[in-house]
Amino acid sequence: MECSVHSIALNKIVKFYDGQWQGMTIASDGACYFGASTHSPLHGSSFFKFEPATKKLSVLAEDMTAICGEDKTKTSPQGKIHSPIVECDGWLYLTTHLSNYWEEAINNYTGAHVLGYELSTGKFRDFGIARERYSIYSALNVDKINKKIYVFVVPWTKDDLDNDGSHLYQIDIKTGEKVDLGVVGKKERSNCNWFFIDDKQNCWFTLFKNHWPSSFDDGNLYHFDPKTGVINCYNSVLPMGKLAPDGAPAPEKLKTERCWTWAEALPGNKQCLFTMGWLGGGDERLWIFDPNKNIENGEAFQPITYIGATFLSVAYDNIDRVYFIQFKDLQDARTYYTEATREYDRKDITFNDELHLRSVSIDQSKDSQVLDHGKIVDQDNRRVSMIESLAADDKGNVYMHGSWYSLSPDESSTAYISHDLIDYFTDLVFTDISKIFKDVPDHTHKVLHRGQFFSYVNVSEDIKR
Fold this sequence. Notes:
Blueprint: E1 2-9, E2 24-26, E3 32-36, E4 46-51, E5 56-61, H1 64-67, E6 86-88, E7 91-95, H2 103-107, E8 113-118, E9 124-129, E10 135-143, E11 148-154, H3 158-163, E12 167-172, E13 178-183, E14 195-197, E15 203-205, E16 221-225, E17 230-234, E18 242-243, E19 248-249, E20 262-265, E21 272-275, E22 285-289, E23 301-306, E24 314-316, E25 321-327, H4 330-333, H5 338-341, E26 355-361, E27 371-378, E28 384-392, E29 397-405, E30 414-417, H6 419-429, E31 444-447, E32 450-458, H7 460-464
Parallel strand pairs: 1-27
Antiparallel strand pairs: 1-32, 2-3, 3-4, 4-5, 6-7, 7-8, 8-9, 10-11, 11-12, 12-13, 14-15, 15-16, 16-17, 18-19, 20-21, 21-22, 22-23, 24-25, 25-26, 26-27, 28-29, 29-32, 30-31
């Protein structure tokens, strides 16, 4: 079975796009809004709108650096929209993120901006930099009752790394006032990908530890209580990882990485869905978190079903189904990282790397069997190599942003090759990809065999069947 999507080559618009992580949503107007990111010093991220009725793709901002009032010839560009995009009262809220990971660029970075985009007017609002020099990596959510934005602020310069840690910030939507709610944990760098704000306006989160192992966090759950103004911590309460399909324990070495790799509130915000996937402790279940139940004894965490290994490419349709992207084979899905394998030459790929769109119902009274919508292919028979941004609505529309093998140079990514970044990336994915770029001069651009594509498909007929 094939999942036949229609894809649009984004590198024909800006040649420097080379990935997108998070930063995609479906708004109340029915349109899909998303970012396109780059690691190049010559260009920042862009912001798009896709209207499903007309199939029209619009560039709302070609370079977010300019939206932030900065000059990329003088400071490092705002290279990514690497946060959830959250709607409140007709506005979308999002953040920028540093993408130039070499020392000179880090020292030249002004800091990540918090932004709003008004759906009715197309107007941007810049709330400014949350904390000077710090990036936002990458959680954002909105308390829609008290009209507060929460962001997770992370140090990057050597001086800040040596003397400070990551902070939770709160921003008042009406006044723009920024409040530092304090260091999370201890004075060392950590990052957080997702917040859950419950119906009592408490902000819940976990720390993502695969990039930077933590000395103080072993499956902790954090909670900011706006009534007391205190960040609380429940130590080592997240479930231990188990593997699909039969509940075998995840590798012991992954235990300390336990965290939410995806989280989304259920309607009413009394509970949230979450996963703790391949880079979050290895668990392969879809979960519900209920903060009104006992957290210490595990009652607050209830598994729905086994779905296999996942990471960022998970989406909830706000009604019944959760969608996710995986390699065909479950073992391959827990072994290989698409952000690494997308760089490989075809001859070097020794496993079946076809990516599938899958989904499952969250209604436990129904059949919770995973539905495989099939191998993802597009109208020109390209081969997809990575999808890390996903959104879905209740009409069966699914939107993807990912890397596909190019059919021509004009749809290929012109990526910036920094060996500082390659070394960092090699450590991250536990494999040596530096050989792929061994003959490329440091700090240069290279046309790759892959490009960035926005894709869409409607799978409502699959669900009916």
